[in-house]
Description:
Blueprint: E1 4-8, E2 18-27, E3 35-36, E4 42-47, E5 53-55, E6 60-62, E7 66-69, E8 76-79, E9 83-91, H1 96-100, E10 111-113, H2 114-117, H3 119-131, H4 138-152, H5 160-171, H6 178-185, H7 189-199, H8 204-216
Antiparallel strand pairs: 1-2, 2-9, 3-8, 4-7, 4-9, 5-6, 5-8, 7-10
Helix pairs in contact: 3-4, 5-8, 6-7
Amino acid sequence: MNIDYREWPPCAALSGVILAYWRVAGDGRSVPSPTILPDAYVEVVMNLGAEVTLEGPQMHGSQPARAVVGLLETAIEMRYPADVCTFGIRLHPARAATFLGIPPASIVNIVSPLGLVSKALDDRLAEVVKTHPRIDSAESHEAIENVLIEHSRRAPATDDVTVRAVDRLLGVDVPIAVSDLAGELGVSARHLHRRFLDEVGVSPKRLERLARFARGGGRR
Length: 220
């Protein structure tokens, strides 16, 4: 059996907080060199299969059962087992830090056990996995979303200008100058730069560079 990758959008209640869910399952021996590529997203990644090994500056060793993979600037090599089953939750870059309840700068270039970042969320997701160990049904997807909806209600609001700016950067086909982006949004370039550092953890230009990798392919 080869590797099967599927991706789908969140429910309306999580739109703008969660960008997508994805699931990878199959025989890892059919993937010669899997890699986590640099990109502009923060994800909660749940390993539901056999042990996955990571080799990179952010982590060396076994991938945590539930991990936060932050905005990465360098690739991480992986070694897949025969039994691959991974479920991912892709967070909006402007809302990831507030959703997880941590300082934005702390999610740049990290791969960390979710329990060290947000123990409450980790505990709730672990309970779902006990009932749905492979997260492979509509019922299990609904259970995951219920946890995320409840968790998102505790998160503070994010500046709308920052959200719109991030959406613009993620959607462009060619680079856009920060001054032009700020002008479109009716703010100064300095204000936009400061908002990004406060809420995303990186500057607009840095996120734009990472977004180029995202447009070239996913993490798995």
